[in-house]
Amino acid sequence: MRERDARVDCDSHQLVMFVEKESGAYGGMRTGSFLARDYMDEYRDRMALFERECLKRLVKGEISPVGYYIILKDMAPADVASRVSLREGAVRKHMSLRHFAGITLDVARRYAEVFDVPVADLFQVRARGETAGIAREPTQNPFVVITRSTQGGA
Which of 57, 92, 93, 113 could crosslink 99 through cysteines, CB 3.0-4.6 Å? Predict the structure, then answer.
């Protein structure tokens, strides 16, 4: 690719490409990403739609919080099972609301660690588009986090 053809105006995602310079030599140049410039907005829109659809399924009770996070984070039940130290069949059952209701607090904690969310997030969701931000501070107690609003006081 020639240097003039590789120039892309996209400050949010820069990369280095090796191109043919005007002099005929090859060398690196810093430029923007074609993918980020042309497709990032569409990707974000599709991901937002996907998250809303998953949230609808969770709220309707079609899937459990375990199922929600497995789908949302694009994880395989077998992978989650090995990380949570359960059989794959148990994880698949926990993806349904009926079987999720019987998990222990310890199993919920292990799921939360795998999904990288506080345990409380297995039992609550925050609607997208809310103006108030939330910051969570971990404590020495693995079952308790301090939740603060990022706008205003605690």
Answer: 93
Q: What is the three-class DSSP state of 51? A: helix
Q: Are 110 and 85 in contact (CB under 8 A)?
A: yes
- For 63-149, the fitting CATH number among 1.10.10.1760, 1.10.150.170, 3.40.430.10, 1.10.260.40 is 1.10.260.40
Kind plus residue range of the DSSP H or E element containing 149: strand 145-149
Residue ranges of alpha helices (H) inside the chain are 3-6, 34-60, 65-72, 77-84, 88-94, 97-100, 105-115
pLDDT value at residue 130:
56
Q: Is the dihedral of CA 127, 81, 63, 98 positive or negative?
A: negative
Residue 137: both structure tokens together: 């501070």
- Res 154: pLDDT: 43
Q: With CA atoms as reference, report the closest residue to 75 among 64, 93, 91.
A: 91
Domain boundary assignment for the chain? 3-36, 63-149
User: Strand, helix or coil at 134?
Assistant: strand
